[in-house]
Design goal:
Length: about 400
């Protein structure tokens, strides 16, 4: 019926039918403790709302039906922000969102275009609950995110700010993508290290992968995800953890990142000082727990042209990290293009790793030829460097153990 009157009963066989912006807005009135099934019938223009208020925590399974929600504008100063503040789901799929998010916060907040916090299953389940699989697939997000934070944590992702793992849940994020820009201005006075629970993390698809407390039997996978993202460092007095796909891991079991592609640019043209380190990885920034990366590729472009001081800069082709344990990286590669157009003085504390640190590498390489153009110092772990021609040669990669499937 549209105009805020939604058809259906909200069951799996008779979902709520969302036809326009007013229908979408009315979803916030559904009971928070009950599972609801949602289906989009049309493309939706949220421009009728000059400032969209994120839908609070709901248990929704959403069939986007290949539709687009466009002209989403969110200007917020508290709480998790996105189309949804917190989305608890077992299946959400086939949705495109075009949005602009401007968020300032003095407390823990998560920011992402689809949702600030993504929960596989329902929040606060019992440990004895049966095993469940939550699948989030084919979510395409476009737009710009600007974050200014003075609080303890600020996970920010192009699609999802953070995951919140629950017992006996396997959370699968598949075929999701973000195309846009994330600007970061961190004003907290904390000097917390990346191995602490206080993370300032930004990821092209997901800001932070974490589990709730000491829960058991939880896992997360990011499969066949894509980001074309630009990170802009405005200024900051706390560690910044940036990853082309995932910003940081925080707690719980080691995530798996498989078949993901990131084309990511980091602009360090900061107008305010960066008084704590910047950690930048083509696939993963940093974290407390390990991560498995397989069959991934990253193209990093770093434009270093600061107007104020930069305390420290750490760059890695795939995984730039400070955590316990090791991280397997298999059949993956990276290209790092470092540019210093005005020959700005580099930070005293700096490092460049072609693949990453604290890792176990098999059949993975970085393009040493491109890297040599802009970064004149020795690269940590140079043994994985290869020429551009080698990395573009299927014959060479097959000789290194790569297997190319017929498509």
């Amino acid at each position: 019926m549209a105009n805020g009157v939604i058809l259906g009963t909200g069951t799996q066989n008779d979902p709520w039918i969302v036809e326009d912006a007013w229908d979408l807005n009315s979803l916030r009135d559904l009971p928070a403790s009950e599972w609801q099934w949602i289906k989009l019938e049309n493309d939706i223009n949220l421009g009728v709302f000059t400032n969209w208020t994120p839908i609070p925590s709901r248990r929704f399974n959403i069939n986007g039906n290949g539709k687009t929600i466009k002209n989403v504008r969110i200007v917020s100063s508290s709480g998790a922000a996105g189309l949804f503040a917190q989305l608890e789901t077992l299946e959400t799929k086939d949705l495109r969102i075009e949005a602009e998010v401007v968020h300032t916060s003095t407390s823990t907040s998560e920011v992402g275009i689809l949702c600030g916090r993504l929960v596989g299953g329902h929040f606060l389940p019992q440990a004895a609950d049966p095993a469940r699989i939550a699948i989030i697939s084919n979510i395409q997000c476009f737009g710009n995110i600007t974050v200014t934070v003075t609080g303890t944590t600020q996970p920010t992702g192009g699609c999802f700010g953070s995951t919140w793992g629950e017992s006996n849940v396997t959370l699968m994020i598949q075929n999701c993508a973000y195309y846009g820009s994330i600007s970061c201005h961190i004003t907290s006075s904390s000097t917390t290290s990346p191995s602490s629970t206080q993370l300032r993390s930004c990821g092209g698809v997901l800001g932070t992968a974490e589990a709730r407390g000491s829960i058991a039997n939880y896992s997360i996978s990011l499969v066949n995800c894509v980001s074309v993202v630009q990170f802009v460092m405005v200024g900051g007095v706390a560690h910044a953890l940036l990853g082309g796909i995932l910003g940081a891991t925080r707690s719980g079991s080691a995530p798996t990142i498989n078949g993901c592609l990131a084309k990511v640019r980091l602009l360090i043209t900061n107008t305010l000082a960066l008084t704590q380190p910047v950690w930048f990885g083509g696939i993963l920034g940093a974290g407390v727990v390990g991560c498995n990366i397989t069959m991934c590729a990253a193209h990093l472009e770093v434009i270093y042209n600061p107007t104020e001081s930069v305390a420290a800069l750490h760059i890695a082709g795939l995984h730039c990290m400070r955590s316990t344990g090791t991280n397997p990286i298999h059949m993956s590669y990276a290209v790092i293009d470092f540019k210093n157009p005005n020959d700005a003085e580099l930070p005293v504390t700096r490092s460049m790793r072609g693949i990453g640190g604290q890792i176990v590498v098999t059949n993975s390489f970085f393009d040493a030829q491109v890297l040599a153009v802009g970064w004149l110092e020795a690269v940590t772990t140079p043994e994985w460097g290869r020429t551009t021609a080698q990395l573009q040669s299927q014959q060479f990669l097959e000789s290194q153990g790569w297997v190319f499937a017929d498509v």
